[in-house]
Write a structure and sequence with these properties.
By secondary structure, the chain is of the alpha+beta class. 25% of the residues lie in helices and 37% in strands. It starts with a strand and ends in a 9-residue tail after the last strand.
């Protein structure tokens, strides 16, 4: 399975595309997924609550949409999708320095949706498996 990915800016005309916005936009394509969230940097008055919820457990999509609404900004971090049985799904979302979102997947429909929503999205350069 050939992996693909897109990168696009988090900020659009002064407005932030939040994690909540991104997950909501992907809608039914990610329904039922649970996510492993690794937080490198986060700004939120609920920092402790979010960090504790993410630590060592899979989070429901709806839980993430709620947590990352208006007052939480994932500056840097990574989400890895898992199916209902806990198996890893080929979908990773990375926040990079509150500047870029990277979405890597073999799911063509996800990449098509990102391209439609963010026409300036660029194809991620290919990475070898040992680059991680």
């Amino acid at each position: 399975m050939a992996a693909g990915g897109l990168t696009f800016r988090c900020w659009r005309d002064g407005d932030l595309v939040t994690l909540s916005d991104l997950l909501t936009a992907l809608g039914p394509m990610i329904e039922g997924y649970r996510w492993r969230l690794v937080i490198d940097e986060l700004i939120s008055p609920r920092y402790q609550e979010i960090a504790e919820a993410a630590e060592g457990s899979l989070m429901e999509t709806e839980q993430l949409v709620t947590m990352f609404g208006n007052d939480a900004q994932l500056i840097s971090g990574e989400l890895t999708a898992h199916d209902a049985d806990g198996a890893i799904v080929d979908l990773t979302i990375c926040a990079l320095d509150s500047t870029w979102w990277d979405v890597e997947t073999t799911m063509r429909e996800v990449l098509d949706k990102i391209s439609l929503l963010y026409p300036d999205a660029k194809v991620l350069p290919w990475r070898s498996p040992d680059e991680g």
